[in-house]
Amino acid sequence: MSKVAFVGAGSWGTATASLVAKKGAWESVLWARRGELAETINLYHENPEYLPGLRLPENLYATNDLEEALDDAEVVVMGVPSHGFRAVVRDVAAIAGTKPAYVSLAKGIEVDTRKRMSEVIDEEVDGCVDGNIAVLTGPNLAKEVLQGFPAASTVACRDLGTARKLQEVFHAPTFRTYTNQDVVGCELGGAFKNVIAIAAGIADGLGFGDNTKATVMTRGLAEMARFSVKFGGQPLTFLGLAGVGDLVATCASPHSRNHSVGIELGKGRKIDEIIGSMNMVAEGVKSCKPILDLGQEAGVYMPITENVVRICHEGIPVEDVVKDLLAREVLSEFAGVEEFLTFNPVPEQS
Q1: Do the two domains 2-181 and 184-340 of this chain adopt the same fold?
Q2: Tally of CB atoms within 10 A around 9
Q3: Does 343 have pLDDT greater than 70?
Q4: What confidence tens digit (pLDDT) does each residue in 129-174 have?
């Protein structure tokens, strides 16, 4: 039986490891940083810290020994948040090298370098080619996937053959997995939608209605597409699971960490207080600043992102931000859209 190593026992890392383990076609091993969590998962088949009350498959094996987890793995799935991703993948690379395919689950941007996680893997895994680096992304709330609710996701890789192999790994009766070769667009969509989810949550926290949320989401999607296409993403990606699909789930669900942060900001709580009370990472809080910096340097108009940064990193009152957004010049809805109408497909590689 072939082996998939899942690095990181947070909610999504645990859920995807369980998804593969349930199928039984691949050995699924989950690495947890702390030995007590690995022991709990093995003894009680539950991850009480991140997915309390939800049963994990009995054939899912957890360990805090990284070498044991990676031994003979054909696929390494990195379920580590963006801020700690580089250090962990460096340790992984020292053991696993270039033999396995690497899959990132992270939906964020590295703050200091402003790089995507596939770029971090490329830098840290010496000799790894981009055709062996992939991203799994989409409207995938961990609790719902673990409960077996129907869902879908995209596995993106420059090499179509690798994408199809990984599609077989993750595809399940209730988890439809599609292939995509637009790694850039899928990664940037996954990171950017968290920023928009904070904005949508702020609108909810302020007590605004569905019209407001729909406006934030729609204009946020346009902002996401403008930004991502500027950096090489494909326009059609943002009409799919990695774009509008992930955006809808993250902006609407009470299980979304970024949306929840936004709600609390809208209610008047300070960001440090909110983050301090959470045991999981809200990627949008960390990623919004490097995303804005990249966009401003490239001349991308990003009013929603700009104001999320002002709230999260500059302490600007939410009410002032709302006034600023409503007072901005009104343009044509599709002003500047011409540059996004040309679709340049990623050439197939296999």
Answers
A1: no
A2: 26
A3: no
A4: 989 999 999 999 999 999 999 999 999 999 999 999 999 999 999 9
Q: Give the strand pairing for 2-7 and 26-31.
A: parallel
Residues of the chain by 3-state class (helix, strand, coil), percent to 5: 55, 15, 35
Percentage of the chain beyond pLDDT 90 is 86
Torsions phi, psi of 127, nearest 5? 90, -5
- Categorise residue 37: left if φ over 0, alpha if ψ from -120 to 50, beta otherwise: alpha
CA end-to-end distance (rounded Å), the chain: 24
**275 band by pLDDT with thresholds 50, 70 and 90:** confident
Q: What letter does residue 54 receive in the DSSP assignment?
A: -
Do the bridges between strand 133-137 and strand 151-157 make them parallel or antiparallel, or are there none, so unpaired? antiparallel
In the CATH hierarchy, which fold is given to the domain comprising 184-340?
Answer: N-(1-d-carboxylethyl)-l-norvaline Dehydrogenase; domain 2 (1.10.1040)
C-alpha dist (Å) from residue 100 to 74, 246, 301, 309: 4, 27, 39, 37
DSSP 329: P
| Dist CA 4 CA 17 (whole Å) | 8
Residues involved in catalysis: 193
Dist. CA 242–CA 317, nearest whole Å: 31
Distances (CA, A) of 233 to 133, 188, 206, 237, 346: 16, 8, 33, 7, 10
Q: What is the mean pLDDT of residues 218-227?
A: 94
Instruction: Count Cα neighbours of 272 within 13 Å in the Cβ-side half-sphere.
Output: 3
Over 60: is that where the pLDDT of 240 sits? yes
Token pair, residue 15, equals 């859920």
341 burial level (CB within 10 Å; 0-12, 13-18, 19+): exposed
Nearest CA to 5 out of 87, 82, 81, 95 is that of 95
Domain ranges of the chain: 2-181, 184-340
Nearest 5°: the CA angle 64, 69, 70 is 135
Q: Which residue has the tokens 């030995």?
A: 35
Which top CATH class is 2-181?
Answer: alpha beta
What is the spatial distance between Cα 160 and Cα 103, in angstroms, rounded to a whole number? Answer: 14
| Spatial separation of the C-alpha atoms in residues 6 and 70, rounded to whole Å | 9
